[in-house]
Amino acid sequence: xxxxxxxxxxxxxxxxxxxxxxxxxxxxxxxxxxxxxxxxxxxxxxxxxxxxxxxxxxxxxxxxxxxxxxxxx
Amino acid sequence: xxxxxxxxxxxxxxxxxxxxxxxxxxxxxxxxxxxxxxxxxxxxxxxxxxxxxxxxxxxxxxxxxxxxxxxxx
DNA sequence: GTTTTGGTTATCATAAATGATAAAATAAGT
DNA sequence: ACTTATTTTATCATTTATGATAACCAAAAC
Lengths: 73, 73
Hints:
InterPro entries (chains A, B): Cro/C1-type_HTH, Lambda_DNA-bd_dom_sf, TransReg_Diox_bact_type
Low-confidence stretches of chain A: none
Order of helices and strands of chain A: HHHHH
Number of strands of chain A: 0
Protein name (chains A, B): Helix-turn-helix transcriptional regulator
Structural class of chain A: mainly alpha
Domain HTH cro/C1-type (chains A, B): 15-69
Oligomer: homodimer
Number of domains of chain A: 1
Number of helices of chain A: 5
Keywords (chains A, B): DNA-binding
Strand content of chain A: under 5%
């Protein structure tokens, strides 16, 4: 498990946590962000190294700032 | 100028500002991050949509947290 | 038990970030 | 002016995130 993989897992968990806190399904969040739901699923599972723009859209639609999204990463 | 481009310009300026605050040349930062100096140049100019891992390496080597790096974006 | 609902996994194509290298431009210092 | 350091720009190959679609799994509802 390298740094990159750890980071991917961490951001994935963070997104999942914030999303579940507001009871928003993956598909809803994905739709709002204009990303594929399968893509979001992989992201939350730590399977991708998302770009800044993807993270920004997720933060916006979760109602948090980008800082809050990447906290402790 | 769309949202993505604005975001790229914003992160670029932020990296540049933080880097210059500690008087670190692009090439030094790039070397520490194991990224190409040309790549960093483009990033600071707003020409790329960097991945989370790239941003994390940059934050680490600038001596700031990821939150601090993406502040106000 | 069979519909929903939410989530996962798989595959392939496409777009784009990055690696690698080189050349040109700019600034700073001597 | 000349040198040196720094940055920018360009190009091409490679890697990878994402788009798009489909099939599958799990749990809860009914």
